[in-house]
Amino acid sequence: MQETVNVNFVFDNHVFKAEKGMLLSEICSLAGYPQDMVCGGKGTCGKCVVEIIDADQPKTVLSCQYPVVDDIIVQRIVNPANRKVKILTVNTRLDCRINPDLSYLRLTKSDFEPGYCSSFAAKLLEKYQLTITYPALKQLSHLTRLENPDLTYTLVTYRNKIIDAVIDEANIHIYGVAIDIGTTTVVCYLYDMTNFTLVGTYSALNQQTALGADVITRIHYCVNHRQEQGVNVLRRQIVDTINDLLNQSVKDGVALNHIYQAVLCGNSTMQHLFLGLYPESLGMVPFVSMSHDFIEVSGREAGLHIHPEAVVTFLPLMGAFVGADTMSVLVSLPDDDKVRLMFDLGTNGEIACGSAKRYMVTSTACGPALEGAGLACGMRASAGAIQHFHIDENKNILLDIIDDAPAIGICGSGIIDIYAELLKNGVINARGRMLTEEAYENEYGKDNLSCRLARVHVADHEVNAFILAFPEENGNHAAVYFTQLDAREIQKAKGAIAAGCRILTSTYGISIEEVGEICLAGAFGNYLDIKNAQFIGLLPQCKTVAVHSIGNGAGTGVQLFLLDKAISQKCRKIQKNAVHQELNLHPDFNRIYLEEMQFIHTERADAKVI
């Protein structure tokens, strides 16, 4: 018989019985307290810190490295994955004709009299050019037996096929949902398809974040956990995330069984995991996906809390690591000849260059650093995250913290501000090196910045750091800092993105000056200080080219697909004419990447000339 241990989550008065020897991280997840497993459980990110009492001894441990062999008390989970996150749900104004694939017919009992036709199905085909699925035909056979001659029926149709038949009680509503599956967050847009109004927008953290911050750690999880089981665990997590959001719509009067269409987008790994496809081919050269095409399954096959015969469509991919989320952004852009440069930067960096006639696309391995993951004090955009940062003329620092809470970490937009401000003020030099307090004072003298330069311990190493908030400034919370190691991670991400941009525009045959506009999609682009991003070279800088955010462009695209059947052909046209540039195969990538790792025009005006 398997031995067990008791794990007492004392902060919630919850005792959980677990198998002896199980990792504390797994126990926390099973007990309902998932953590941010940024590194996928390798013990390298330091984000799964838990304060426990084991054998009457207080300890601070990494849960992913701590097997539980005796009863313990869990006093505090430092970085719970279920902390409320700031999620971008807004998008640009939807501008499309209303002509959906999902529709309905309202008929009376007399309309079902077969007359000269040999069957009900034959009449539906002859009069309405509609075929009927077996489940709908079976349902209709029951309804037509009812004696009431005044009954009205609603036939729900997708394209030219009847997928359900119901008694029309007080003009029932039918619904469709557009879903943007992000690596970090998931957003659902639910529409009433009888009047084409947005019923509600629902968003949450992707439950898969408990097993890894980026797609690579999740692919490795599948490979390392008896492939099929690992895939099923991650599939269940994303399906559960979506179902939890759909369940929220019930309070808005939505009958889940009347949701007849779902349109989804996401990156290539999210596509594989949602559909239960083994993703390991995405994690090794030559990076091959199982399918780039539209994939349609039923609501039942997808496991979603919608009508079992609902049509669930995942938009097509554009490359192994250029996913349906990029496709969704591109279909949301105007159908004109203007050449645009589009960035969607997050755990993976995707770039597109072109117009409706032809796009070139690529992806860059910029890692999760731009979303705060993997940095010493990095975190997602939730309460306590530094989201903006500025150094004034007196060298005082100004922090903008989400919810005006004490600072506990730094999110993506804050990271770019910090890097830019430290570059502007000489704390970081043009090669990305952070100065020590002594080196800074020798260069610029003693000021309000020099006293914030210190040495801190990170993962058993002592490194240079800039203290953003001392405990005494921060309600006696732990100090928040930005380290040399963090600077290098951002430098590498910046280099990869800038190199990808240079190669893409060059291959397309234009210069930055010839681009019509630069579009930033996604949450990172929405909250980013564009001037600071340009200052560090993350985004190209040209006075004649406008840069603006388009909000959740992927969310816009799936909504358009839901509301206008013509978007399907637009997807096919974009996919057919697109060229996927694999950066690792470009002969000049390494050279350009190393060039873009440098920072130009960043020296302080009062820097000494050596």
TrEMBL record:
Residues 5-80 form the 2Fe-2S ferredoxin-type domain. Pfam families: RACo_C_ter, Raco_middle. Transmembrane segments: none annotated. Signal peptide: none annotated. One of its GO terms (molecular function) is iron-sulfur cluster binding. This is 2Fe-2S ferredoxin-type domain-containing protein.
